[in-house]
## 1
Amino acid sequence: MCLGIPGQIVEITDAAGHLAKVDVSGVQRTISIRLLAEQQVQAEDWVLVHVGFAMAKIDQREADLTLAAVKHMGEAYTDELEAFQATAIV
């Protein structure tokens, strides 16, 4: 199962390349924010992350609700977090 998981942007690491460091449940990775270029995401914004891409900008409340729902799914949450830990954009 593939899920989007909420992450908070820690910093924009390469504005021209549309890359940002995001924190997902304490795990930090560089992801692409290219799909959200028109939304001008910035540090501290919340995004929905899937396979190394920010798919949508979300607010804190939506991030909290989504994370709680995904954690409630048990193994699906664990699988998604493990997949996130194993990926990296270099």
## 2
Amino acid sequence: MLKTWYSSLNKLGDSKKLKYIIIAIIILFLSANKGFISLITNFRELQTLQKEHLALQKENKELKLKLKLLNSDDYMESMARKEMGFIKPKELEYRFTPQDKESD
């Protein structure tokens, strides 16, 4: 049987044809193998989850920094001054009206 298989391969003549046939057989075997398909699916999901994990770690760092700033008295005071116009007792506030760009 091995001799007949080998002789049929020799009839192909061109080694390129043999390479294409072997590649086609390998592709068919791998695509028909459910374990291999599952492995590829799991690998893609792992990559997606790793990207999501990195994004969540970055967001976590930013939120920790923001929390640290919010617990700071100086930051809270500067935000109160900026957002709500907070001024301390006996402190003067100067307000300037913006100039029109047309008059420049």
